[in-house]
Amino acid sequence: MSYYPTAAALAAPAFVAVDFETANRIGGVSACEIGLVRFEQGKVVAVLESKLCPPPGYQHFEFTHIHGLCFSDVAAAPSWEEFAGAAAAFIAGVPVFAHSARFDARVWRDLDRHYGTVSYPSKFYCSYEAAKRLLPGLSSYRLTSVLAACEPEHVFTHHRAVADAEACGRIIAHLQRHITLELP
Q1: Domains in the chain and their CATH numbers?
Q2: Which residue from 123, 110, 39 is spatially nearest to 80, judged by alpha carbons?
């Protein structure tokens, strides 16, 4: 499945960027943090973030060394079942971007499947894929590298969901400002 955005999605005046952090390799159901950042006209206009408590069986934290979260940080947090409605309402039909959409889309679908929720966005795209096509010649297309090429002055805490989501959104906003798109 390709998450390469359509020209219309890239040109959308409003979009949401998302990032998930997961506790372990078991699967997306181990999501322990989500960050959603809404952009309008290239500017951050709203943020929705939450720690998430994975369900029993998914609560082993093997990625604490990456994102700094452990079970005690999320034990009192909402489950995806409790949070999914807020995420769907925040998106409200606009395109959604993640820097590694294959990962974040899988996490989102795994959560919806596990909890029986229906919140997965109908328009889900990848800033990594967009950057590879529209910003040729970068030495790396990792989030930190692409953001440095697009907004070198922006400093962020990598591997925190809301910071990574904002970085993704800033990349899309940069592409909107600096890349001429042929709309279908």
Answers
A1: 10-178 (3.30.420.10)
A2: 110
